[in-house]
Each structure stands twice: as C-alpha cells, then as structure tokens.
Amino acid sequence: MQKPLLGALAALLLGSASALAGAVPAQAAVPVRSTVAPAATVSFAGTVALSDCSGSVVRMPDSVATDPALVLTNGHCLETGMPDPGQVITDQPSSRSFTLLSASGGRLGTLRASKVVYATMTNTDVTLYQLTSSYAAIQQRYGISPLTISPDHPTVGEPIEVVSGYWRTTYSCGIDGFVYQLHEANWVWDDSVRYTSTCDTVAGTSGSPVIDTNTGLLVAVNNTGNEDGESCTLDNPCEVDQDGNVTVHRGTNYAEETYLLPACFAPGNQLDLTLPGCTLPTP
C-alpha cells in the first residue's frame, strides 16, 4: 500500500517504499447543497496535510453547512496503526490535527478531529474523521469549502488530478481501468482504480483526493503503487482478475473508489451502515 511518509521512509531503509498522490478541484460553496460542482481549475483548497499522509475536507452530496465536517484519508494512515484484514473501526475517539491549505497550498490553520467515524483496509482503504468544526465554521474562518464525494462510479478515461496536501504537489493523469481485486500482503481491495502512467506518486501522498476534472467531484482516494515489481507483497500490489489470474505492473499506482461512502451516511453526516444500499464492510 502507499505507506504513510514516516512508514515509507522506514521501508526505504529496508529497500521498499510506495505511495499515491492527490489532487483537488475548486470546492462546492457553502451552503453545501449542489451535488455537481462545475468543471473547475484544480487547486489545493480543501486539502489537508496530516503528520505523515495527505487528505481532504469532504462532504456527502446531501451534507449541509451546519453538519460536522469530515476529513478523508486512507485506512492505512490511521494514527493508531493499520487495521488488520477484516477489521472495521467506527466511532473511535480521536484528537488528530490537520493542516488546512489555501488554494495556493499555503497554511491556513489547524483543524482537529473529535473521532474516527469509519476506518478499514478491507475491500477499500479509507479513514473518515469527524471534525470539531462544521463546514460553515470552516468557511467563515478560512474561506474554504469541502470537496464533494461523487455518488457515482467513475468511468475509464476520465481525466483526474491527485492533489497531495502533504507535499503541496498535484498529479494529472487519467483512469486507465479498474482492478477486480488488488492484493497487497494480507489486504485485498475491490474494484480499485488504476492510474495512467503520469500519476507517478511518492510517499506522503497517501490519502490524497482523486478529482474528476470534468465535474470537480471527488471519485477516489489514492492508496498504493507497485514499487519493485514484486507480486502481492507489501508495497508491491498485484492485480487479480475474476478467474484468479495474477498480473503485476511495476511503477503503476492505484486508488480506491469513494462512491460507496454516501450511501452509508444519514442526514447530519451520521454514519449508518444499515442503510439500504450501503455496502461498506461492517464491524
């Protein structure tokens, strides 16, 4: 997987390291009502830097300005350690801090979590934090609006940008295809996004938002890449098709789709894994 920066640096000493990058479009304006943002110039507005990863302030399509804001990053960026295969974490107290960025990548201020809403590395690789601030409070204080998570499955060929809040770097490429299963060490992720070659990301970009530049919506969160050409090992994911055939693409990077998330959130940004249509793994 795309390891957090500190973990990746340690891995480099052992001869391995991987990471993915993140990009950001112009944000939906608060009050956060529209479900489709206009095609917009990509910026760092709405992205955040973690201590060892990247992330972004996000909203569901039906979130409103008074809802507690959410931050999205990878499951393997969780501060308490990477979840085990099959493990799902919900409603875990957290006081993690995030550096909020301006459109140009400057530091605006610090946001703080109140809890981990959801985290897993099973089927996908996501952590969602709830913040102590609402979207309206962040807008009022910093002039920053959240990124909107698309409720729709992305499509092959979409132009995307991956914006890394940690490195203040963006990557432009396209969606090359989708992977039935991506295997890395003991973890398995379903229906992963494969990038075209120009998204050549580095350690510290884990958790970056992947933005469809046609819509301005967030469609995935980047998480891994094959560093050394090994097969299905840590930092060297392999692709497995429906028939069990394994292929390896050295230097190729991947992301996990996020369209499954909105179906699992009720009004008020409340996680509800029992909602009809919610298919995220449960504890």
Overall SS class = mainly beta
Tally of discrete structural domains: 1
Annotation, overall tally of beta strands:
18
CATH fold title: Thrombin, subunit H
Q: How would you portray this structure in words?
A:
- The protein is mainly β and 283 residues long.
- It has a single domain, classed as Beta Barrel (Thrombin, subunit H).
- The chain has two helices and 18 strands.
- The strands form three sheets. A six-stranded antiparallel beta barrel has the order 1-2-3-7-6-5.
- A hairpin with an 8-residue loop joins strand 2 (54-59) and strand 3 (68-73).
- It is globular, with a radius of gyration of 17 Å.
Keywords:
2 helices; 6-stranded antiparallel β-barrel; 6% helix; 283 residues; Thrombin, subunit H; mainly beta
Quick rundown:
The protein is mainly beta and 283 residues long.
Q: Helix and strand layout, with pairings?
A:
Blueprint: H1 5-13, E1 47-49, E2 54-59, E3 68-73, E4 88-93, E5 97-101, E6 107-120, E7 126-134, H2 135-142, E8 147-148, E9 159-164, E10 169-184, E11 187-195, E12 209-212, E13 217-225, E14 238-240, E15 246-247, E16 253-257, E17 265-266, E18 270-271
Parallel strand pairs: 2-8
Antiparallel strand pairs: 1-2, 1-5, 2-3, 3-7, 4-6, 5-6, 6-7, 9-10, 9-12, 10-11, 10-14, 11-16, 12-13, 13-16, 14-15, 17-18
